[in-house]
Structure formats: C-alpha cells, structure tokens
Amino acid sequence: MKFLRSQIARWTVALLAFALVAAACGGTSDSGQGETTTTAPTTTQPPAAPSSSTTTTVAPSNEKPYGGTVVVADDQEPPTLNPLVPGGDNLIVGIIGQAYQAGVSEIDGFTLELIPELVAELPTVENGGVTVNADGTMTVRYAIKDEAVWSDGVPISGADFQFTLDTIMNPDYTIVTTTYEDIVSTSVGDKSFEYTLSAPTVLFELLFGTVLPKHAIEGSDFLNDWNDVQWPSAGPFIFAEWQKGEFVRVVRNANYWGVDAETGQTLPYLDEVIFRFIPETDSILTAFKAREVDIIQPPPSTELIEALQALEPEGARVEALAGTIWEHLNFQFGPNRFVKNPDSINDNLNYRKAVAHTIDKSLIVDEILAGQVEPMDSFVEVYRPTISQGSWSVYDYNPEKARELLDLARAETGQDVIKTVFTTTSNNDARVKLSELFQTMFEDVGIEYSNQLEESQLFFGETLDSGSWDFGEWAWSSAPGMSGLIGSLDLFDPENPAPAGDNTYQWGTETSSVQNDVTARFAALRDEANQSVDEGVLVPLVQEAEQILADNVVIIPLYARLSVAASWADEVGGFKHNPTSAAHTWNIQDWYRVDG
C-alpha cells in the first residue's frame, strides 16, 4: 500500500504527453534527471541474485526473458513523488510508486488479501505478532526480511521504520498522523521493529505502508527535496527521470531482492518502465490501439470496455473487475463553498435531503455504465457488505418528496431561489455525462442548477484542499478488510479537517457551518472504533456511524466503479490487474516482454 489517504482514490490530471515509441526491447538510455540511476542491462541474461540465507533455491523452469521496456499510460500526472506530503495521496503517486517504494504489506491481485512485502509475515494475534496487553495497550512486531535491502545496498532495518515514524510525527510536516500518534513506545533491531499502541486497533494493518531510508533522507528537507526525485528504492525499479507533462521513467534495480517463486529467477525482468501521461480517455484508447502503450487502466465506461474487448482477437487482454473505488456526491460545509455558490444552503438538512431524492441513481448507472453495476445504498457495502444497513435506501428517486423538502428549506432559510453549483473533473467522460444528467433532474424539482467543472489537477489540488466547491463528485478507494472500513471514518472526522487531515468536506470542523451534538458523536464513534480489534465492538460502532452520515446526508453514495485494465498480452507477460488501491502496477516486478 504505497499511498492512500484512508486508501483514497483521487484522480489527478496529466498534461499532454508526447508520442514515445512503445514496446522497445533491449537496452535503455542511462540519461536521467535528479538522482543518479543504475544503467539498465542491455542483455537478456539474468542479473546476479543478491546473497541471502533465505533466497529461494528453486531450480529455474520455464524461464522468462529479461530486458525490454513497457509503457503504461495514465490520465493523471503526479503533483509530487513523495507519498507522505500533500498531494502524495493521489492515486497516480501510488501507481508509479509501486515501482520503487515498499512497506509492510501489499494487496494481492489474485486474492485481494493483504500479503507481506518487507516483512516475513504479517503480524496477527494467532502468530504472536500482535499482543493485547493487560494494561490495555497493544504491541505489534515486525520481522523484516533478511534479504531486503535498499537499491544502494544498505539493508532495510528497524532504524528505517523508526525514522519513518519520526518523520510522520514531525510537527513541522503536514503529514496525516492518524493512528501513528497513538504509538507510545518502540523497540528497534537490525531486522526487527516493534511498537506499542495506547489501545487495540485494527488500523495497525494500514501503518507503515511506505518505509523511508534513514541513511538517505536524514538531514534533507523532506517536504521539498523529494517531490521531483526519489530516495533509494526498496522496490524492483529505481526512479530515473521525470519529464514534466510527459512521462516518468524507472529502470531496473540491480539490488532488488525479490525472486520469482515460479521459476526461481531474480526480479525484475524488464529494463525499464515508462509512465506516460495522457489526460483524455479517448487519447489513451487511441494510443493503446496503435500499440504506442502496452498497459492502460482508463476510467471505465461501457463504450470503452466494448472498444477494448473488440481488440482481444488482435492480442489484447481486457480485465473488467468489480472495483473497490466508489463514486459519491457530497456537500461542502466550509466557508469557501461560497466561492462557487454565494447562495449555497448546504447547512440546511432539508435541502440536502431534497437533493438526495432528486438524484435518479438508476438512470445514472444505466446511462454511464449500461446498468452493469447496481446503485449503492451505502459506502459500507464496498468494504464489508455483510454488515451494511443500506442506510441511504430511504432516499429513493422521488421528485415530489424533493419539492416538499425544498419548500421546507425555503421557509427555514428565507431563500426563495435555491441554487446548486456542481463541480467535478472535466477530463473524465463519465463525470461530464453525470453533470449533464443532473441538469434535468435539478430543474425538474425547482433547483437552479449550473456546472463549474475543472481540470483534474486544479480540482484534486487547490479546490479540495481549500474546500472551494459547493456540490461535488469524485471517488474514494477502499482498502481491504475491517481496517479499511474503520479507516474510511477518517474521511468525515470533524477533528481532522483538510488539508492536514482527511475531512475535505469540513463537516463538523471548527470552520464548518454544521457543528452540533451529531458531529460530536461521530467524532467520538471514530475514536472508539480506532481503539478495538474486537469485531463485536466494531460492528455496532460502524453501523451507528453509517446511520449518522445517512440521516444527515453528508454524502450520497452513487456506485462502485468497474475497474478496467488492458494489456497487449502478445507483447507483455505477467500482467494481472488489481481492482484495489494497489492498482494495475502491484506486481510490476513480474512483468516481462514476450515479443523481444
């Protein structure tokens, strides 16, 4: 898990990329910017395996070829390469970061379960890695893999974990400290790290998603020095260069310690991977059809999926999977909403309920996804469907009810003309279509509706951080298990406003137009849920929190997106799409060219 603001999916824009030649087999250029990089091998011989007492000794069979380049296209460009600073929680930062960053765990693309990355096994109560102590604290222990080293050869150690913690907790940095702030003591070893939390919490599963190299970062300006370059790699590739508006290039990490369990070969196979930034979905599809790019994960739509599937006879492999990214509508409660809509009445509950009854979710999924998904009645469905209460099901599409509620809102606010200004990203076809569908829906109930769509880089940067929108739409990405669900409560935590915290909506925060006993109760629920590993305690807390958010229409869940990825299988082997926040690059070390 390389980024994730509670495993968020924020979709940021890319500048127009120039046409790189795709699918080049053989050697790579050693030119780059920023860090000095290792020159990628130009032969098809496997690199030397790192020395380790635990290195797999399986005799190679069905060997896969070394060398070559894979080009990945994305509609985003990262605002930074540093996953811990503002903007580092954008999805594209994690997509690229899979190449060179590593942490305690990863999400397996086949099982969608957490699997160990830097540690020998994930700590649990059953294996002794987690202990709930008699004094009410909880201790977590990591055994770091013996073979794990940074790309410069320095062993990854407990000191790196401690340095990561110290960096996150530095009061001079604008880093979200949720759960880390509850660590009361630590113990550091050469290949071990142990910490004790003030109370039990399942959120320990999400800690140390990225580990920092102390020897390389200590003494630097962490907030500014690592935005355009990267520290020594803990992953299969090394950052090589970033041509702004065009691409990021990574090259093979000769000191990577991973081994292909199937063949016994040292990983990775490729010489380099290039991440091209192509902001428009149509342009991504065009580049893929022309084989200028090898792998894509574009925003899904019915038309796009059908266009990609039409390429399967030519060698394309298309995976359209049930995703963990959920789209939602939302209201801004902070004072900057008046920038977009001077007449905003988002603080009026009857208005928000009226909007919920104005939205025809069935029409939305039919028009945007050809009915391939069901509308959501709760965001909890995406994390743990068995405990969801479907709390938003009371807000059916009901224009008559919406008009009644709007009359109440007019009486309560003294505002005869009710206006809604909708803002989302302008480069996403599905969201543009959504904005068009709203025009009729809102006008039908008597709301004066208008769009102010923005390019993604602005929307997912300044607009969200400052809260300068009125009525918005975007997607969040869910992390697996109960830890992901508990973590999602941070998105609405009144005690953690953006940009330093996760609550971009400003619901219940110090500057919010809505602060009451309900927001205070939600903050208490969030705190209680972060202090238990007992599902018997957690489930009722989550369900009460779900009901509060629905009763107060803080957000309106829409649907869980299909997650679509396509590759040219006759050119690239080893690719497996991952519909979670780990994304399509989760096993980038296993990719290889089959056409070299």
What features would you describe in this structure?
It is a single chain. This protein has 596 residues and is α+β, with helices and mostly antiparallel strands. The protein has two domains: 69-294 and 571-593, 3-Layer(aba) Sandwich (D-Maltodextrin-Binding Protein, domain 2); 322-561, Roll (Dipeptide-binding Protein, domain 3), CATH 3.10.105. The chain has 15 helices and 18 strands. A ten-stranded mixed beta sheet has the order 8-9-10-1-11-16-12-15-13-14, sandwiched between helices. A four-stranded antiparallel beta sheet has the order 4-5-7-6, with helices on one face. Strand 8 and strand 9 (247-252) form a beta hairpin. Helix 14 (517-529) packs antiparallel against helix 15. It starts with 68 loop residues before the first strand and ends with a strand. Mean pLDDT is 88; it is low at 1-60.
Distance between the termini: 32 Å
For the record, the CATH class of the largest domain is Alpha Beta
Total of helices: 15
Largest sheet descriptor: 10 strands, mixed
DSSP strand content: 15-25%
Structural class: alpha+beta
Number of strands: 18
CATH fold-level label of the largest domain: D-Maltodextrin-Binding Protein, domain 2
* Weakly predicted, low-confidence segments: 1-60
**Rounded average pLDDT:** 88
Approximately how much helix is present in the residues?
10-25%
The CATH architecture assignment of the largest domain turns out to be 3-Layer(aba) Sandwich
Q: Globular, elongated, flat, extended or rod-shaped: what is the shape?
A: globular
Work out the count of structural domains: 2
